[in-house]
Every structure is written in C-alpha cells, then in structure tokens.
Amino acid sequence: MRIIEKKALGPGIVGRLAGWFSAPPRWGHARGSARLLPRRRLFLRLLGVVYLAAFLSLWVQVHGLIGSRGILPIGEYLAEVRAVTGPERYALVPTLCWLDAGDGFLDGLCGAGVILSGLLLWAWRRPPCLGSCGRVTCR
C-alpha cells in the first residue's frame, strides 16, 4: 500500500481536504483538542443529518416493510428464528424487536431514532466533559 503525501495532492481542493482531515489527533493536548473541536462538531452534526434522514424515511416505510401486515412481518420472522435456534438467537439476529414486534413499538423505535439524531443536530452545543466529576474540570 502506497502512502500519498499531502504535497503530492497539490494545492487544489483535494489537497486542502486531505490536509484538513488527515491531522492526527493529539490526545491530552489542549491546543490540539481545541483545534479539532470544530471538526468534531461538524462530524457529529453531519452524522445527525444522515441518521435523521434514515430514520424519517424508515418511519414512512416501516409498516409496509416489516409491520404486522408488511412484506416480511418482523413478528413472524422472529417467531421462525425462535423456533429454529436457541439462546444464540439474540446474537444471530440482534434487534430490539425481541422485546415487542408490534406496530406501535416499531413507531416508537423510529421516533426514538429521530429524537436521538435531533440531539446530535441541536442539543450538543458543547461536548460533555466526563472529567468534571473528579478533580479535572473542562474549561
């Protein structure tokens, strides 16, 4: 595998983007953390946009796809998996629908996904500081 240097990419947009995204993280350095904070925020916001679009589009289609009267009802599918497998079924088919496979629960899962993706978009103005409960505090 050949490593491309930033200089080889040239001064164009590709070169600037490669330099912007290829900065190594500097763990423990306040200067590096402060420099990477806008990128981290941008990444989380864009991730929130992707998740919001995914959960909203799934919410529109979930009843027709895996609802109780859908193309492949999740309740029937999980019942077949339960009949064929043992306790390893939770590892083979990891889903929260093992708790309940009703249409209301599917709506709740989609709604929770929309709310959590909204948190990525709007609620996280500052990242939470995990060290604030001890002696170390964030500035």
Blueprint of the fold:
Layout: H1 6-9, H2 13-21, H3 30-65, H4 74-84, H5 89-92, H6 103-123
Concise description?
By secondary structure, the chain is an all-alpha fold. It is 61% helix and 0% strand. The longest helix is centred in the middle third of the chain and has 36 residues, at 30-65.
Beta-strand residue percentage: under 5%
This entry's quaternary arrangement is single chain
Mean pLDDT: 79
Could you say which structural class the secondary elements and strand pairing correspond to? mainly alpha
- What's the alpha carbon Rg, rounded to whole Å? 22 Å
Largest sheet report: none
Provide the succession of SSEs: HHHHHH
The 3D shape can be described as elongated
Describe this structure in words.
By secondary structure, the chain is mainly α. The chain has a domain at 46-123. It contains 6 helices and no strands. Helix 3 (30-65) packs antiparallel against helix 6 (103-123). The two termini are 41 Å apart. The mean pLDDT is 79.
